[in-house]
Amino acid sequence: MQAVTYDGAGGVVVRDVPEPTIDEPTDAIVAVRWASVCGTDLHLLDDPAGLPEGFVMGHEFVGEVVEVGRGVHSVGVGDLVVAGDYTACGSCWFCRRGEHWHCASRAFFGTGTTFGPALPGGQAELVRVPMADTTLRRIPAGLDPSHAVLVGDALATGYAAARVCAPLPGDCVAVVGGGPVGQLTALVAQALGAGTVVLTDMDATRRGVASSLGSVSCSPAEAPDVIIELTDGRGADSVVDAVGGAAILDAALPLLRKGGRLVSVGVPREAAWDLPLTAAFTAGISIDFVVGNMLRDADPLLAMLGTGLLDPSPLVTTRLPLTRAAEAYSAVRNRTTLKPLIYP
């Protein structure tokens, strides 16, 4: 079968690889209909220490179940499903608490050994899905599968961020970063009742998308003054770092009011961050680092899409065949699109 693989030199190449097989009774095989290219994929290419040459990429995908192991009960052959970006057993102490990311059996699709055991990804014609009862969820009838693909990671991450912000009616939520996760965080924050959502990004096109989706958009230089004016001088009730890294966290902190909450969902590039401890303590702020969790949150995510409460279509503007996957990667790197999809 054909798959998008790491080329060993900082890029991707489509090549023929062996078809996956059922290895465990809890496995399923999914024929991929749509897969996406994510910013995390680019991070891996830039720092490929855990990514061997030839490894199959991709961690956001939807498709049709074509084979199941004898231990799979929640999905069957013919079901149209979305996968979480990582697997989990569903029964351990962490999984029972809804903290699937900490499951000892977790494996992250398409990322080599960067986040744990290697598991080939979904930018392929077929993909093996371990622990399918936990990892897969049926897509409701009538929901566009090319929208449902976002549930696996980008939308799950945005929802996790907004969920931790827990905006009260009238609250101001600021989002730093206008990529797919930032845009989806802003949409979810609006859906959860935030009074004002401010999205800041250096890119004017991304600011335009945010404005069209109901956020107040501004450049990073403008953000402090915009937020001060909107909040009667207090600052934002919550600030979400949707990019990751020390510089973004440094820029996010001054936007926050006293007693506010900083939520980071961006993958950091640095190993450490110098937090101004005295100022943070005096201001009484809370800081959370959050990972998306479709395995826990699939029901509300699919419901928001299915009812039209969230419309991600402005983010999904590029669709390319699998054979042109390298173009999709270039489009993300060059910021000429937000969320490109590829199909076999």
UniProtKB/TrEMBL annotation:
MF (Gene Ontology): oxidoreductase activity; zinc ion binding
Keyword Signal carried by entry: no
Cofactor: Zn(2+)
Keywords noted in UniProt: Metal-binding, Oxidoreductase, Zinc
Domain of life: Bacteria
SUPFAM superfamilies the record matches: GroES-like, NAD(P)-binding Rossmann-fold domains
Domain Enoyl reductase (ER) residue range list: 8-342
InterPro entries membership: ADH-like_C (IPR013149), ADH-like_N (IPR013154), ADH_Zn_CS (IPR002328), ER (IPR020843), GroES-like_sf (IPR011032), NAD(P)-bd_dom_sf (IPR036291)
Entry's family note: Belongs to the zinc-containing alcohol dehydrogenase family.
Identification of the protein by name: 2-desacetyl-2-hydroxyethyl bacteriochlorophyllide A dehydrogenase
